[in-house]
Amino acid sequence: MPFQLPVHRVCVMGVLNVTPDSFSDGGQFTDPEKALQHARNMVAAGADIIDVGGESTRPGAEPVDASEEIRRVIKVVTTLAFGGIAVSIDTSKPDVAKACLEAGAVAVNDVTALRDDDMASVCARAECKVCLMHMQGEPRTMQAAPTYMDVVLEVGDELVAAAERAIARGVKKDDIWIDPGIGFGKSIAHNLQLINNLGEIAETGYPVLVGVSRKSFIGKLLGPGEDPLPTEERLEGSIAAQVIAQVRGAKIIRTHDVEATVRSARIASAILSHR
Ligand code: HH2
What we know:
alpha/beta; 8-stranded parallel beta sheet; globular; 10 helices
């Protein structure tokens, strides 16, 4: 069954990292049974789709090869998909995407916006949803000195160009989501500008996905002092950022904290529906 976004509310994407080193939940779900239980809990709390990741993208993370990434994710993807849960695979590697789509995943979430040429044909063949995320540089070095003349304009233009490249390679326009890539080659000010001006990116017509959950700009803004607030204390900050993103037109919210996200999104929607 092709995955469809809900019509009258935002779509909530629950994050499931089966990695040893993800920035906020690394090592918690490397045991497939624990991962499956966590995914089921997120669905029970209202997640529409589960984003399974087998390689951390945090700055400085060790890259893994495709066979190790497949080994990490495949049992979880297969079991969830077989159980009727919509699964997205968070990968930049065509072999990983292909294995997971064959196992029943309905979406590919690529933080490199299909930089690898083979990704587009894998996605086109599967007719899955494809999330194209913006990143300046690559994870190892992206936070060194992110530079833009006009971050909102440049990110929007580059995402539209990535979407057009994907369409030229056979991906259907209706299957594309775009994502400004909060924290991926962005300073704190860039992140804040992107969230506050998300409407300009939403105007492109592609559904916009936003991932702010527990990200470092929230920790740094909340301090105390020079020390960032730890990841497990970033819920309120994440919700504030998500609600602004929703008000500005985000259609999909990627989150580690599904229940709080679903509840806050419902209240935001209720308010927004009373002009
Ligand atoms: N953020 C992360 C990973 N994948 N995909 C999209 N589309 N948008 C995002 O903002 C995004 C993403 C980073 O978060 P997480 O998966 O929790 O961490 P890690 O990359 O360390 O596994």
